[in-house]
Design goal:
The protein has 92 residues and is mainly beta. The protein contains 1 helix and 7 strands, in the order H-E-E-E-E-E-E-E.
């Protein structure tokens, strides 16, 4: 995590994805879609509350599709091997 950027509302998720780099994490999105994250690059737009995430691009994972989304879209994060709940987003 870059300390010069104030943490957004999804800081816990960003931290989790950084710690799990290289290990699969299943993200359940607010629209009902699931995304598998193997790595995450992130940033914040000026005056934004939530981080924007780019998954599976840095480094590129050939077998995994690249996804771009807002941390606000993530409802839960789970370990796909154990089913353990790793993160629960804010209720909206």
């Amino acid at each position: 995590m870059v300390d010069l950027i104030l943490p957004g509302q999804g800081a816990g998720l960003v931290r989790l994805l950084g710690q799990r780099r290289g290990r699969p994490t299943r993200l359940r999105l607010s629209g009902g879609r699931d995304v598998l994250a193997l790595n995450c690059a992130w940033g914040m737009d000026y005056a934004a509350e939530w981080e924007h995430l780019t998954l599976n691009l840095s480094p590129r994972v050939p077998a995994a599709p690249v996804s771009a989304l807002s941390s606000a879209e993530v409802i839960t994060a789970e370990d796909p091997d154990t089913g353990a709940l790793l993160y629960r987003g804010f209720s909206r």
